[in-house]
Structure formats: C-alpha cells, structure tokens
Write the structure tokens for this entry.
Amino acid sequence: MMRLPRFTYRAPRTIAEAAEFLAAANGSAMLVAGGTDVLPNMKRRQQTPSVLVGLRGVSELKEVTAADGLTIGAGVTLSDVLEIPSLRERYTGLWQAVSQIATPLLRNMGTLGGNLCLDTRCNYYDQTYEWRKAIDFCMKKDGETCWVAPSSRRCLAVSSTDAAPMLAALGAVVRLRSAERERRIPVADLYRNDGIDYLTRQRDELLAAVELPASDGWRSSYWKLRRRGSFDFPVLSAAVAVQVAADGTVSSARVVLGAVQSAPVEASDAGQALVGTALTDATIAAAGELAAHPARPMDNTDFSLVWRKRMVRELVSYALREVRGDDVRELRRRISRAALLS
C-alpha cells in the first residue's frame, strides 16, 4: 500500500481565506479539490507539500453564472460541468472534452480547475518511487537527466489536460486570486512549454473561475486519441473553434493541439488559413496539414511519436468536418470510441 506523506491540512471556507493560507505557507503548500491528481502524486512522492489547502468547502468556487457568456467556478466538478444547461449546444467542444476525461467516478470527484492545473505526465515520471529510484530518477523530480531526451536541458513531460486545449480554442479566460490581487489571463497564457514549471500561476494564487465568451456564431469540436476508449489520458487531442459568417465563410478560427508538448499548442497558421474560406474538403485538408507543423510529440507517452504526429492531420480534419455539419458518428466510434459525442 502506498501511503501519503505527512502534511498539515487547511480547510478554508472562502476564496480569500484559501489565498491567505497559500500566502502564509510561503510556497510550501499545494491546493487540493477532487484530489484525483495530487493525492496519487503524493503517494508516489512526486509531490510532497508540507501543507494541503482543501477547496471542497469553498462554495464560491462552485458557482456557475450564465449571461452572454458563461462563468464556471474552478471547483465545479467535471460531472456538474456536463450538467450545465445549454453547455452542449453553446460550447459543444467543451462538453465533448469534459465528457472524455477519465471515468464517471473520477469526474464526480475531479474539478474543472483541477484538470486545467493537471501535472504534466511522462512514462519515466508517472511511476512509483522505487521504480524511479532504480533509473536514478529523472529531471522532473529528484534527478538531473530527462530520460526521454538525455541531451535536453529541460523536462519534456507532456501536458495531458483535456479541458485546456478546448478552452483556449474557445477564447476563454481564467481568473486567478491571491491574498493581494486578482488577475485575468487567457487560458493559453496559463501554460509554459516546460515540463516542470508548466504553469504561470504563482504559488500564492488559486484558480478561481473560467470565463467563456459569448458563443454566438461559433461552432466547436474536440477529438481525443487514446489507447483505451473507456478512460485514458490523451496522447493527442485536437480542439477546434470556428466562427461562421452569414454567407457560410469562416470569419475567425482557432485550432489548438493537446498532448504534443508541455503546454497546449495553438496551430495559428491552420486557423488563419481557414479565415475567409468555406469549409470545403480542400480547405479542411490544408488546415490539417498546417496544424501538424507545430506538433512536437515526444517518446514519453503511449504509441509511436511518428504516428501521433501524422494523426494530427486526421484529428483536425475530423473536428472541422464535424463543425461543418458532417455525420461523423462512425468516425467517433472508431477513433474516439465515443459515439454519443457526435
């Protein structure tokens, strides 16, 4: 049995109180909401905070406000996100992304904020303490070498959050709170392409809410590649959001890839190539080709990195076809193994 290391537990009732606990800990505290990522990591001694600040009792983090856009508290469970009225119709891609996270039991515990702050993953890192010790540890924890690329000067652990690529494609903003300030930044700016220091969120800050802009004229889709269809982390994901004008041409588009680097990657050339065009087979194929260029999958997750890069073209094409209105249910069954999401 793997046991948790010793720690002090704090149970704030408000966001302000949680921020005060973080400030007082001076960098030695971690936040825990559902605990589906942090607690297993602590058992494997990947993370050993001296203080855990529990957010389950902070009701402010569970609020959902719908107006022109939509604001979702970071403490809303993934299961409850799926139950937000009209989410599936207004932000289809987000509904699809959250639906494919883990299992129903884990979605009942895990939160939207927790998935956004999910620790980066790697075959050499996500092992027991004894296994990692046997290879002399790795750069991400206790060692000096990245075993994925031994000559690399930085950790190449991969970003495996499902929610972040889709929220970035939708132009969402996150609200961060500390004892001294509140700031709002685009979801895309929450991440660094660094397997160790992968978040721009400061140690004294907590993610309070996610703000989605109005969905008028926007269509979105999320496709995920994984070995097991029932549950698994992505080895590649494609998030697409397209705004379609009255004449059927694309007025704005974003394509964001997940699980190809240590942060979600926007394929900006692919999005820009769609603007001013109709979603024809030719423009969709061209966008898929452009999206593959910035993808840099490494040999640190499941499947061949060469095949995963090749699949970028396919997943982006599938997402754009779905946005266009094609019947992709059979593709969903074969690739995402989730026919209910079409």
Q: What stands out?
A: The chain has 13 helices and twelve strands.
